[in-house]
């Protein structure tokens, strides 16, 4: 299991130190939750902060865009060279065009599904993406409870991936902790995002280790 801690739950007044600690603690990616107050009812951080974060982090960024006007934000974040840019299927009219553009710009494209969106909606885009992010909470806030129906969705998605694009990764985001990580692993999840579980712990390395069963 790869682990992508969400800095949404970090102490923003000590963001630089938090990034250093999480990178040293064995995280694989740094998950960046960009919210615009329109697609989701919350605001987080934009380009000025994340370009500083990108300079400080010694591990690759995993950018999750929870925004309307997705095409604008993709242009802002491409020059930071994150490992992944994830865009919500619910927010993009011309998904194939945007995914193709992200890949042509040298960044790995990923698509995100809200809890109510079926894995079937991915059938014709799956060959073009490197990762699918399944939301296991309604996006907008850290610290919410895990929605268990994501397990069935991940299992069905895994079957679809095997027939359409076997190297595509599955990432799950929201309410992930040591008590649900084994069930996520069993249904084929490759990358776990965790915010409050890791940042509210007193030992980041131990918390990350507990998500790699
Ligand atoms: C929710 C964000 C998540 C969030 C995860 O909208 O996309 O990445 O930070 O936080 P936890 O792990 O606390 O649910
Ligand atoms: Zn996220």
UniProtKB/TrEMBL annotation:
Pathway as given in its UniProt record: Carbohydrate degradation
Cofactor(s) in the UniProt record: Fe(2+); Zn(2+); Co(2+); a divalent metal cation
Keyword Manganese: yes
UniProt-annotated binding residues for substrate: 6, 64, 140-143, 173-175, 195-196
EC number: 5.1.3.1
Gene3D superfamilies listed in its UniProt record: Aldolase class I
Binding residues annotated for a divalent metal cation, in chain numbering: 31, 33, 64, 173
Enzyme class: isomerase
Any Pfam family hit: Ribul_P_3_epim
One GO CC annotation: cytoplasm
Catalytic machinery residues: 33 (proton acceptor), 173 (proton donor)
GO biological process: pentose catabolic process; pentose-phosphate shunt
Entry keyword set: Carbohydrate metabolism, Cobalt, Isomerase, Manganese, Metal-binding, Zinc
InterPro entries, per the entry: Aldolase_TIM, Ribul_P_3_epim, Ribul_P_3_epim-like, RibuloseP-bd_barrel
Reaction equation(s) it catalyzes: D-ribulose 5-phosphate = D-xylulose 5-phosphate
Similarity remark: Belongs to the ribulose-phosphate 3-epimerase family.
Stated name of the protein: Ribulose-phosphate 3-epimerase
